Amino acid sequence: MTVITEANTAKARALLAELTLDEKIGMIHAAGLFRTEGVPRLGIPPFRMDDGPMGVRAELHNDSWVPLYNTRDYVTYLPSGSALASTWNPDLAYATGVALGEETRGRGKDVILGPSINIKRSPLCGRNFEYMSEDPVLTAEQAVRYVEGVQESDVAACAKHFAANSQETDRLYVDEAISNRALRELYLPAFEAAVKRAGVLSVMGAYNLVNGVRCCENGWLLDDVLRDEWDFDGFTVSDWSGVKRTKESAEVGLDVEMSVTPDFDDYYFANPLKEAVARGEVSEQDVDRKVFHVLCVMDALHMLPDGDGTRPVRKAGRYATLDYLQTALDVARESVVLLKNDDGLLPLDADRVTRLLVIGANADRVHSNGGGSAEIKALYEKSPLLALCSQLGGNVKVEYVPGYHAEQVVQDVSWQEGSLENSAGSDDADEARDCTLREEAVARARAYSEAGDPIVFVGGLDHEHDLEGRDRTDMTLPYGQDALIEALLDVAPNMIVTFVAGSPVEMPWADRAKAIVWSWYSGSEGATALAEVLTGAVNPSGHLPETFPMTLDDCPAHSIGTFGHEGHVEYTEDIYVGYRYYETKDVPVRFCFGHGLSYTTFEYADLDVRRVDDTVRVACTVTNTGSREGKTVVQAYFGLEGTGEDRPVKELKGFAKVDLVPGESRQVIIDIPEAKALGYWSVGADKWATAWGAAVYVGESVRDIRLTADLD
Ligand code: BGC
């Protein structure tokens, strides 16, 4: 889909003809950490960008990473990509995009550096919290609507990081060996959808190399695939310091160079590029092509003056408003995942609760100001403790004990200056202190349990672990939480275990816990949503957008391929990422892809799968058979048949979220373009091919299949 019109290209061409080489060069490299140079004599403003993707980042100095520390750049903290994916609700992705686009424009920016849509290959990737899913269809559906929402406001979204930025370790230099099949089927489709279906106006070249070629020098990715195959007509921008050589990046479709240091004139696309043009090593046409893309997008965003010098009307946007906080809450509510609820332990009977014990440092934490470039200067972020107290009201005595020690993460203001180096985590263990905290928590839990009063544990991760520039080294809970949970369950078997985190953790005690609730870094109101699920004010409807394996050793990126190495990693697991592997190889998992419980129950009937013109239509009837209104996610998986190649037994092809009152039945229809439903990248032919048929599975998770049919 193209957003750039003929009028945009005409104006871009006309302006380009007026520009000097110096002016052109100024428009394609940074003149500030988040902006390019404008051309005042022609009314061309600087291009202003900002992170992304969970809200608009705080205002920094033009040439240093130190914030301005003013009071006018507080914004809505929107739920992370993983939370958004967990809703399985594209309408909420659109609402998120609308809020973010308006806030971006409201803050006077032109480009928001999101969505982050890399596929989660390993649970250890430090930026998984920003990313959406291990599955390309779920990622694509959410990304498309998010981009459409952002771009309503005369703001460009920026799909990042193109491509396969699946690990943080050695992220600037690691070379990733990936088959064409895995690229085409897993790592590229969300970008393709953002370009072809949503008309995303910018794409960020990743730091890493793919098959030996740096992404920001990669003619195959940036020209052949992005421009020629997908008809991308927006502009590309390097990740900050993703350009490492002038000629090699200048000659491919990398349009704008951004970086982390303030020596803007020395950037590869600054004086060195000018000199390369003068020496005839880079043609001025290459420079023109880049400036043309920038001008086209600027005009599409109504940034350029008309021929008579007047400025077109541009949307104004607004930020830090109550309605976007409401959007953040709406999304958070559908993102909480009820992983386990034996004996109907949840929801708490709020009318009968007189006191509640809350244990765990994440109850008393906020997370917005961390994680790397996705940090947010949030207007506010409620902690779970605040949200629980506020939900339960003054008649309930809430007691809090931390149970373990976790320093509140405070991100170093200028961490990004050093972000090009690998960093190591710190371990703040102190045996005596930790032992005292644990004993105190166990003693309180015993007393509450004996009295029949509820206990909620709020643990998980924080941005010391879910963090740009660093991968986790294992999948276990930090700060001794596993031992603490075991000890607590010994004395309080009905303890409700909840988490705030950005990536899966091992849960060796999971069989002993009756109720487990998962929440992500889910925005200003994320804790409200968690509290509402616990009290039953909200019926949970989040479903896992990624598998929670039993242990890290089960994960194919680690057991088959390599992950987290410096220099070179092999994606030997190929397309067998996440559930594609666990299902095909029948590997037990802790919680499977798509899993999520509700306080009501749903029945599925009447599956009908047929071809209608160029689509495959999957239809079934879903009935709410419980006693509460609730939403479920109808998931359609296909096992392609007759390909003659090794294929996953199940691949998500479509889904729909449906809201039903008790007793209500509804026919759910999922239409999938036939090329997507039956398409696969043939290893033999090294191109797209179409399967003749498929086994179709419909259910509430990849393992909770309710209906099956054959498509011949
Ligand atoms: C990140 C990008 C981000 C950029 C600007 C880089 O470190 O990888 O996602 O947009 O910085 O802050």
TrEMBL record:
GO terms for biological process: carbohydrate metabolic process. Keywords: Carbohydrate metabolism, Glycosidase, Hydrolase. GO terms for molecular function: hydrolase activity, hydrolyzing O-glycosyl compounds. SUPFAM superfamilies: (Trans)glycosidases (SSF51445), Beta-D-glucan exohydrolase, C-terminal domain (SSF52279). InterPro entries: Cellulose_deg_GH3, Fn3-like, GH, Glyco_hydro_3_AS, Glyco_hydro_3_C, Glyco_hydro_3_C_sf, Glyco_hydro_3_N, Glyco_hydro_3_N_sf. Residues 632-702 form the Fibronectin type III-like domain. Belongs to the glycosyl hydrolase 3 family. This is Glycosyl hydrolase.
